[in-house]
Amino acid sequence: MADKVLMKGNEAIAEAAIAAGCRHFFGYPITPQTEVAAYMSKRMPKIGGVYLQAESEVASINMVLGAGAAGVRVMTSTSSPGISLMSEGISYIAGSDVPCLIVNVERGGPGLGGIQPSQSDYFQATKATGHGDFHMLVFAPSTVQETVDLISDAFDLGDKYRMPTMILSDGLLGQMMEPVVLPEPKDPTDNKDWAAKGHQGKRPHNVVNSLYIDPKELEDLNFKRFEKYKQIMETEQRAEEYLVDDADIIIVAFGASSRISHSAVDMARKQGIKAGLIRPITLWPFPEKFIKKHVGHAKAFLSVEMNMGQMVEDVKMVVANQKPVHFYGRTGGIVPTPKEVFEQIVKINGGDC
Amino acid sequence: MSKVMGERPKALLDVPLHYCPGCTHGIVHRLVAEVIDELGIEGKTVGIASVGCSVFTYNYFGCDMVQAPHGRAPAVATGVKRARPDNVVFTYQGDGDLAAIGMGETVHAAARGENIVAIFINNAIYGMTGGQMAPTTLPGQVTQTTPYGRDTSVAGNPIRVCELLSSVKGVALAQRVTVDSVKNVKAAKKAIKKAFEYQMAGKGYCIIEVVSTCPTNWGMSPADALQWLRDNMLPYYPLGVYKDVGEEGEQ
């Protein structure tokens, strides 16, 4: 078994991507993801990889499109405002069925917002990253180790389904240090037969494209892509359950806020309140199955987020008015404390604190 | 016995082009395809189609193709070339794509000395969207969005791209050509071939600007459009080599 090393979240992102066989990184500096790029700029030249600082996030995502279209494992990382700039390119990437990895180390918004941790890009990541009908696989790790593990999965699943994938991290996970075990290095085979890498006179030309001027053709393609999404929704939902089987009050929280909620559940249990936690690991597909099976016995749900209430809409959709769904959130870069969340549990339970 | 005097270049697929009658895109497509054939590089070439009239180039060239978002062809080309340095990579961009929305990507790809070729069609107008002002629209030129003629005090000045890029270190070749006559077509082909050869020699960013016509949106016959090009475009956009690092490379 590989040794444990102490790594900062952002650096672990970079090292995990390298272990997953990624040798192409294009990015633009932005806080709080800077260490990903800095780490890549040190490592890539030493392993025959490409690190390139683009002139903007607009350029970097299109470099990702080019390298992905040429059939190599490629990634970029940025923080919230950077994703807004990349949104056009991400739409083209999805519309061209090109796999790639996009890391968003979220910060507070809107606008220039702040540089402290936030989860306010949930809507953007899961519903409308760019124009048009499309989805990305979105993973929300809650520890540095899980970040490492999910990056490997994100590359593999992106290749499998030919689609962009996102790691939705935040300033807290990016900056914290935790012990991790890095995976065995992978060497993905260069076998993407759809890629634009030169036909060598051996096949008709490949075209990587998102333009379909005939409405019927475009509709058919969107139908086909959504058939794939349907399959992904059935097979790729991931979540972790903590003390939910007998729970009356179930918190739904991902990423950094799930860590806080975990502590709040422990505090509640000590007071004799049957609280539990469902922690979505995939945000798209949203882990509906994990919530649905507890709607019967739970008395109430509480969505805890570092935003003004985004994922709560998906929780409500799944719970479908069968049980009350509450929301608690802090925003602007404020991280809620376990005590704050515990107080919400007590309140929902009908008590004072 | 009959003798074949000329054939469609192999790198140009046998499909109908969608261009308007008299448009010079067809000539430029042919020249690029002839160069690809002569250098024997179709199998390792990747072309980047941009947004505009030439968006469908991905259906016309026989090499592998990627279609880029508006203005981002240089960034997409950078991604392809960095991922596959042994491939030959070219972009095919119009004036709106290269010099308006994509000027940032253009200048930075040039400054990095990206080993790519940009085929730049300058016809002083947005063709695909129906004839709006381009960054290269001439002063006084009437377009759909400059109905009283381009007033430079309001709408700014046309950009001379080759002149601008000639000051950028990283550019190996910046040459302006046109295709209004047999002589100029031959010179244009020579320039395009040189650009591809420079890329294969690893010299850096090459741009061949082709001063072109848009008879449809200029509202002229193809012959009148070529005359208008000679009378109005070429004085503002003089043909010539604006930068050439030559055999030795940049000093």
Describe the structure.
The complex is a heterodimer of chains A (353) and B (251). Chain A has 353 residues and is α/β, with parallel strands linked by helices. Chain A has two domains: 4-183 and 210-235, 3-Layer(aba) Sandwich (Rossmann fold), CATH 3.40.50.970; 240-348, 3-Layer(aba) Sandwich (Rossmann fold). Chain A is 41% helix and 20% strand. In chain A, strand 11 (249-252), helix 9 (255-270) and strand 12 form a beta-alpha-beta unit. The mean pLDDT of chain A is 96. With 251 residues, chain B is an alpha/beta fold. Chain B has one domain (25-244): 3-Layer(aba) Sandwich (Rossmann fold), CATH 3.40.50.970. Helices cover 37% and strands 18% of the residues of chain B. Chain B contains ten helices and nine strands. In chain B, strand 7, helix 8 and strand 8 (205-211) form a beta-alpha-beta unit. In chain B, helix 1 packs across helix 8 (182-200) and helix 4 packs across helix 5 (103-111). Chain B is globular. At the A-B interface, helix 3, helix 4 and strand 9 of A face strand 1, strand 2, helix 3 and helix 5 of B.
